[in-house]
Amino acid sequence: MSIFGLLLLSVLVAAIPSKFFEYLIVRRPILIITLKESSLWDLCSGLPQVYLVDYQDPPKYKSTIISFLERVKMDNGEYLLPEEYRTENLCSVFVEGINTNV
Known about the structure:
By secondary structure, the chain is of the alpha/beta class. The protein has one domain (6-101). Helices cover 43% and strands 14% of the residues. The chain is built from four helices and three strands. It has helices at residues 18-26, 39-44, 61-74, 87-101; strands at 6-9, 30-34, 50-54. Strand 2 (30-34), helix 2 (39-44) and strand 3 (50-54) form a beta-alpha-beta unit.
């Protein structure tokens, strides 16, 4: 059995890296280092498998990273993929967006 977590770095404020959605499918803990004011932070703040670090707030780095590493070490299961990120739901949102803009 392998134990691992995922790391995502982003300096973007508005864009959400596509790698985030690939990571969600893996259903493992994710350490995300980004701006607290970013769209990625807003999107991830309610997800239990995501550990957020604001790279502009160094005093909080250590405790969040330690919590993430402890979770990775003890975690022997997978997180559920949130309903709003399942393929069927994302496809319907995409098609709806196309239809309203045509």
